[in-house]
Amino acid sequence: MYRATKVRVEGSFAPEGALAIQSRRSATIRELLSSDMKEHSSATHRGSRPLSPALIGPAWGLLGVAAFSLTVPLTRIAVADGGMSPLFVACARAVVATALAATALVITRQRLPRGGQWIRLGIVAAGVVAGFPLLTTFALTTTSAGHSAVVIALLPAATAVLAVLRGDERPPRAFWFTAAAGATAAVGFAVFRGDGFAGPSWADLLLFGAVVAAACGYAEGGLLSRELGPWQTISWALVLSAPAMITLSGVAIAVQPPAGSPAQWASFAYLGVVSMFLGFLAWYRGLARGPMAQVSQIQLVQPVLTLSWAALLLHESLTWSTALGALAVIACAALAVRTRLAQTTPGLEAGSGPDSGPARYDPAESAGRMESAPARACR
């Protein structure tokens, strides 16, 4: 009698009765929790609203630019007094970033790039992993961070020009006029100093080369991040360049063993972890979410932030020539980017052009892979 009553109470007397009761109990608990959250939880309070989808891309882009704005001043600190050679600072920081990137790729079990994507990754690696760090680091051994920031302010216009050429766009003449005006302003700032015409120095030539290299990497990386994913793009580029960067780092250590102050090593750590990896993660994610032209305009904030950091960390004085040169270059770059933005069709900016291809990056799919890998490891 007792057993029959127990069986009926537990629900196992009917087929699948225990499962039915358990399901009803779970539904009741979920209903109670849901009603309680609606009334009391701040997560569902009427006053809190999620970030607008239109602002997600620019927000990630701003985060990346804020991370990049410290690169020039901290590079200047790292190579000061000759404790660390510029070759070591430029290459070894890529090795540090490669270790982080390779770990992330292995843990999340990312698919290998296919075919021509490796060639495009080579362009990204040559531009932002090797070219820009090497050229700017050697330039900063003989010039100030503020001067470098003004020349590098040409980067948004250069990126827009290469994106136009890469996408086979036909912008109006105003775009080419403003881009040329920005380049002229940057060259004029480089060759004219406070006491008149001085001609471009080797540091200026290196900085202009760095602008071209970074623009190539940004333009190609922005397109490729829509196929591979934002952090996957810079990660694969770092892995692809690892053999060369490790070899050059070994040569630099053999020629001049690095020796620096705690501030210099802290600057080097930031360059390797943030400037070479986490900053690109945010920047390429912003470009992938788009619109790309709108997000690229956020680069215009970077020279202003860099000049501020140079004054704060390096105590560099902001001269009138530097301020006027920065304003001229930034204004021309802003007009160039805005002219292209007004001309670009929404469909192309959304990535529906021929370069988008069938293998578009799906943030939800990538997030699923990142979450499922640790879960599989736990099991």
From TrEMBL:
<keyword id="KW-0812">Transmembrane</keyword>
<dbReference type="InterPro" id="IPR000620">
    <property type="entry name" value="EamA_dom"/>
</dbReference>
<feature type="domain" description="EamA">
    <location>
        <begin position="202"/>
        <end position="336"/>
    </location>
</feature>
<protein>
    <submittedName>
        <fullName>Membrane protein</fullName>
    </submittedName>
</protein>
<feature type="transmembrane region" description="Helical">
    <location>
        <begin position="87"/>
        <end position="107"/>
    </location>
</feature>
<dbReference type="Pfam" id="PF00892">
    <property type="entry name" value="EamA"/>
</dbReference>
<dbReference type="InterPro" id="IPR050638">
    <property type="entry name" value="AA-Vitamin_Transporters"/>
</dbReference>
<feature type="transmembrane region" description="Helical">
    <location>
        <begin position="205"/>
        <end position="224"/>
    </location>
</feature>
<keyword id="KW-1133">Transmembrane helix</keyword>
<feature type="transmembrane region" description="Helical">
    <location>
        <begin position="174"/>
        <end position="193"/>
    </location>
</feature>
<feature type="transmembrane region" description="Helical">
    <location>
        <begin position="146"/>
        <end position="165"/>
    </location>
</feature>
<dbReference type="GO" id="GO:0016020">
    <property type="term" value="C:membrane"/>
</dbReference>
<feature type="transmembrane region" description="Helical">
    <location>
        <begin position="267"/>
        <end position="284"/>
    </location>
</feature>
<feature type="transmembrane region" description="Helical">
    <location>
        <begin position="236"/>
        <end position="255"/>
    </location>
</feature>
<feature type="transmembrane region" description="Helical">
    <location>
        <begin position="55"/>
        <end position="75"/>
    </location>
</feature>
<feature type="region of interest" description="Disordered">
    <location>
        <begin position="346"/>
        <end position="379"/>
    </location>
</feature>
<keyword id="KW-0472">Membrane</keyword>
<comment type="similarity">
    <text>Belongs to the EamA transporter family.</text>
</comment>
<dbReference type="InterPro" id="IPR037185">
    <property type="entry name" value="EmrE-like"/>
</dbReference>
<feature type="domain" description="EamA">
    <location>
        <begin position="56"/>
        <end position="187"/>
    </location>
</feature>
<feature type="transmembrane region" description="Helical">
    <location>
        <begin position="119"/>
        <end position="140"/>
    </location>
</feature>
